[in-house]
Amino acid sequence: MKQIKIPFLNNRIPLIVVIIGVLLITGGVLFVLKYSKQDALLGNKGGSIGQSQDFIDSDNDGLRDWEEELYRTDPLNPDTDGDGYLDGEEVDSGHNPLVKAPGDKLSFYPLPLGKRYNVTEKIFNDEALNELFTSYLSQKAEYLQNHPEITNPQEFLDFTKDSTIEEIVKRSLGQSYASLMGENNENVSEIPEIFDIKISDEQIKISEDNSKEAIQLYLSRITDWLNSDIFFFQDKSLQAVVEALQNNDFSKIDKLIQLNDSWINTTKEVTVPSSWKEIHKEGLRIIILTRNVFISIRDIKNDPLKAYYAVYELEPLTNDWNELIQSAIDLTEKQEITFSL
Predict the structure, then answer these.
(1) 282 alpha carbon, distance to own chain's centre
(2) Are 7 and 222 spatial neighbours (Cβ–Cβ below 8 Å)?
(3) HSE of 95 in the Cβ direction (CA atoms, 13 Å)?
(4) What is the CB neighbour count within 10 angstroms for residue 27?
(5) Range of weakest confidence among 10-19, 73-82, 85-94, 105-114
(6) Is the pLDDT of residue 332 over 80?
(7) Calpha distance 106→121 (Å, rounded)
(8) pTM (2 decimals)?
């Protein structure tokens, strides 16, 4: 009898964790550079960073272009479904930007994008940023007073290199690390649909037909996805995360998320033999959580604190997934299911 060929996770996960650990501070710096209101630091004279492709919102609807690809909305139409509400407004209020109101509530588990799921924005608010940069400006002013040889005081005050701002943010994060992580965990706990996922019987289709034919049909539909090159837990997919972080190019990740999200929506419509429903629900939970982890990592520049949290959600998935697959293999043996691949 052939065993079901479903990918076990391997030791690439720790490599991802190491890389993200190195890049999280950079993500925090980019976030501060983007959202700071301090014109004196980030004006033309200061040489601020240009607009990254990751932040472009072509139709000004509150969804960045790459987010529109994941939501399957039109990046050049601010109101894709034509119901009078901007796509970004609908996402932030828990509505579906592809379905006209009323009756357009988002179903199942939403993508962790938009302001309602931005953990870093909640912690790094304008007040905190103003305090950080005001302190720096005060130090510059004090230095100016003690160095009368500076011939152009205003130019001295206005000019700041990006590297200087990066250093300020690194030190600030280092000094407030413990309290920052406490706030981070608290904010994440307020959005359980992202990292505390539970699948109920009502969210899937269950059949009392537990014949071998019904089980084999079910398994064939599920394993087509799990054995594909695009599945999250395949080596190629995990390596794509590493390469995206190394090369600052998230196009492959965007495609992976989009394809897997399509499979998630298809799989929740698959009819599940009742003897397999618990394995099916646990598999969906792990995969949806993994999708949210991938999206959070991909959004590191905009929400580095959620990306940080996501890394630690990714680690235990190794054991969870392997245990689930072993349970699936044990059940096929118990039911004497022959499976051809």
Answers:
(1) 20
(2) no
(3) 20
(4) 22
(5) 10-19
(6) yes
(7) 23
(8) 0.74
